[in-house]
Amino acid sequence: MAEIAAKVLIVGGGPGGYVSAIRAGQLGLDVVLVEQGGLDGGLGGTCLNVGCIPSKALIHAADAYERAAEQAKSAPFGLRVEHPTIDFARTIEWKNGIVGRLTSGVGALLKRHRAKILQGRAVMVDGKTCRVETDTGPQVVSAEHVVLATGSVPVALPALPFGGRIISSTEALSLPAIPGRLAVVGAGYIGLELGTAFAKLGAKVTVIEAENRILPTYDEELVRPVVRRLRALGVEVLTRARAVGLSEAGDALQVEQEGAPARSIPADKILVAAGRRARTAGFGLERLDLTMNGPFVQTDERCATSMRNVWAVGDLTGEPMLAHRAMAQGVVVAELIAGHRRVFDGTVIPAVCFTDPEIVTVGLSPDEARRAGHEVHTALFPFQANGRALTLGAEDGFVRVTARADNHLLLGIAAVGAGVSELATAFGLALEMGSRLEDIGGTIHAHPTLGEAFHEASLRALGEALHI
Amino acid sequence: MGTRIIKLPDVGEGVAEAEIVEWHVEVGQSVLEDQLLAAVMTDKATVEIPSPVAGTVVALGAEVGSVLAVGAELVRLEVVGEGNEEVAAAPREAAAAQAPAERPAAPQPSTSPESASQSAAVPSAPPAPVTRAPIGPPRPPGEKPIASPAVRRRAREAGVDLRQVRGTGPAGRIGHDDLDAFLRGAPKAGISAARAANTEVETVKIIGLRRRIAQKMAESKRRVAHFSYVEEVDVTALEALRATLNAENRSDRPRLTLMPFLMKALVKAVADFPEMNALYDDEAETLERHGGVHIGIATQTPSGLMVPVVRHCETLSLWDCAAEVQRLAEAAREGRATRAELAGSTITITSLGALGGIVTTPVINRPEVAIIGPNKQVVRPVWQGEQFVPRTMMNLSSSFDHRVIDGYVAARFVQRIKGLLEAPATIFIEA
After folding, report:
1. Rounded CA gap, B272 and B295, in Å?
2. Which of A19, A283, A406, B395 has a CB 3.0–4.6 Å from the CB of A327, allowing a cystine?
3. Is residue A45 within 8 Å of A75, Cβ to Cβ?
């Protein structure tokens, strides 16, 4: 059996793992990265293969199709389109092309930084050694440092085990055809992003949510434009509803809803989007006997686990399960291993929902800020009063700022509207730099852009708004 | 309604003034009869002043730390019925404004009516409560410091905990300049996140007993020509005797420490050296040699060093001495020691007990001229003619006032004590 010794062993090639490997390579460390590949993986992990990137590709295609269809119906600015159609197989091919470009790009980056990639399933033997089952036989890797970056997997519901009609987000991104009727179980961001895309592509979509509203982790004010849009797209949303299983014939979803008779919802595909859970099984984690934090591996501010020189990053370590969090942690760990003093100490981790319209949140909501004991100034600026939004034909939504009443320090910024995901950059920077409302108010924002709404919301919180 | 002025009462014979060490009430508070108003401190004792009537506090006579003359206004109360103030009919605002102005200046208790009315006309702010803001970061504890990622990273690399750094930017933001300033001020070597420099400074007002101690110590060091003399004493026999006596374990007798033996030895020694049991009045240039041996026992109390006095040790038995030391030490620690019990010593013993150390250089309890300080007992090999033998040895560190005590005399005095302690039976042999 071949044996490899390295300074750093990274288990998992997703955003946490591959970024850690690149940074470690840049710092001159000797790195081995193990990636098991398979249907839901490969270099780039969930994000590049079956998450962020392919879903955004699909959402973009669905958007374009839906707009074309809209022009065909009403041509609001005179663009005439006749009977648009979509070749879905081509769509998937295009999406796969993007994924392929990005994953091979990751491979090239790793190679450039001299990280050794081992394709195969890693099983930890102890805190310094792991056995990798590769196509060419088992290999043992021993390393001074181990970075666990195994990510997460979709949660399966006992009543709706994956298989056949019942699919996870992974399969939903590679369907051979647009389903005629799609039931989506779970109105979190994954279910709504994909549900909306398929609705735009022509599927009859029904969303089933156990809570009393969609996107329950976001405040109601932000979600309202999304609710309106879903209604306009003809998506049926059942709240306080529970999917109890398949009908006897297996072609419909049985749903119980509070205060309503049980329903059977015919569906060609049933997308279970009930969240994700940390991948803690299948790689010998139990042999390390690490301290856990519920379903996650417990880490400190340096991403160190309870075992010396065993580190963990990304979804394995807890919420929020976001690629950019994992990447930032991956960098921290690589630099720590290289002997730098680092902590994972971001003030905020932005979160984006690529629903229609998009939602971006950075920092605290007004209620969260109040619960944290702050007296707050909060103000929102609607896109209805923003010139750029009107020229884009996307006037629903707003930017909202929340600041401390005493010193005007920004605590949270949120927006809902078409294309607002790009504002995450400005929002995150404002909070990381410790900006006050006056800092945003005093920054000249380019006109005409959506970002002006951020400027105006800050001015409004100071009682100085100009365009409202 | 009337206004009742509570004056600082006579808190002990011959006491002309006292220092306010603590207020138990504040302006606006209602007090009951006999409720404690303030603690004041005279030369040595702390006295609690109760309220003779019920009422509402209108004004406090002085800040904590101020010295008030006996008879000066301590508290002004608004009471039901007639007060004792001449201008009781005056509107309350006027009375309140007047209160601080009427606060008599302690050194000049007799003010002419003209100057009194003049000073009353000058509006002066009521005594502000003492605010002790610690000098340090103004950020409330537990609040996360605000700093850009670049500043955070630099701080991390420099091993600086940003919670220790004061932010001068908007909303208390810590900038590169703030970090630079902190780094300039922080020690360069050995800093790490785990051992961040603590830049907090707390200002503690030196008041009450502590102030009294500070004054007395400084005065003693300033005036007295101290010299210290250290001799070692073989206390093996003494310790054997002490053990034997303690082994009797009689419940009517206190346990004996070294202290009563040393006290009895002192009584015996000063009989031969009367200049040691004396008070030197350096202004009158007289030395009072005392017949009675009143031994001050330096005692650590929660509020500081106190010296209760065992009077007329020449009349006390060994156990009387032990019992008296114990009683006085407890009284001093509990703040019950009376003024009489804290004054009148003619010579002082200062012992750090088990902490004793090798040598001390005691400060003389002025106007006394000698202070004796036993150090820690240790078993040491001692050369006795042909061999080393283990002996229980103890150093005796003493200080004398060289203005009136010559070195030769002091050495002989200490040798005398040493002789007595080394042959303890001689302590008890009547001449």
Report:
1. 17
2. A19
3. no
Q: pLDDT for A285-330, tens place per residue?
A: 999 999 999 999 999 999 999 999 999 999 999 999 999 999 999 9
* Contact check, Cβ <8 Å, A433/B148: yes
Percent of chain B with pLDDT over 70: 82
Is B67 in the A-facing interface, judged by CB distances under 8 Å?
no
Q: What share of chain A is helix, strand, coil (3-state, %, to 5)?
A: 35, 30, 40
Q: Which residues contact B184 (CB under 8 A, 6 or more apart)?
A: none
Is B146–A438 a contact, with Cβ atoms under 8 angstroms apart?
no
Query: Who contacts B230 (Cβ-Cβ below 8 Å, separation ≥6)?
Result: B359, B395, B396, B397, B398
Cβ–Cβ under 8 Å, residues A155 and A276: yes
Per CB-CB distance under 8 Å, the chain B contacts of A433 are 148-149
What does the alpha-carbon distance between residue A191 and residue A429 come to, in Å, rounded to a whole number?
29
DSSP annotation of A364 reads -
How far is Cα A421 from Cα A466, in angstroms, rounded to an integer? Answer: 24
- CA separation for the pair B49, B314 (Å, rounded): 37
* H or E stretch at A181: strand A181-185
C-beta separation of A436 from A403 below 8 A: yes
Cα of A344 to nearest chain B Cα, Å: 10
How distant is the Cα of A343 from the closest Cα of chain B, in angstroms?
8
Residue type, A328: A
* DSSP category for residue B89: T
Q: Do B170 and A340 touch (CB under 8 A)?
A: no
H-type alpha helices, B29-107: 92-102
Q: What gap in Å lies between CA B375 and CA B394, rounded to an integer? A: 6
Q: State the pLDDT confidence band at B16, using cuts at 50, 70 and 90.
A: confident
Cα dist from B146 to A230, B151, B223, whole Å: 40, 10, 55
**Interface pTM (ipTM) of the complex?**
0.72
Cross-chain CB nearest to A341 (options B146, B157, B172): B157
For residue A144, the number of C-alpha atoms closer than 13 Å in the C-beta half-sphere is: 10
A29: exposed, middle or buried (Cβ count in 10 Å: 0-12, 13-18, 19+): buried
Going by their DSSP bridges, the two strands A2-11 and A137-148 should be labelled as: parallel
How many angstroms separate the CA atoms of A20 and A43, rounded?
13
Angle between helix axes B258-272 and B407-422 (nearest 10 degrees) is 130
Instruction: Give the Cα separation of A430 and A269 in Å (integer).
Output: 42
Neighboring chain B residues of A343 at a CB cutoff of 8 Å: 156
Catalytic residue list contains B406: yes
Pick from B82, B71, B79, B81: nearest CA to B49 = B71
Q: Helix, strand or coil for residue B252?
A: coil
User: Is-contact A127 A310, C-beta < 8 A?
Assistant: yes
Distance CA A154, CA A160 (A): 13
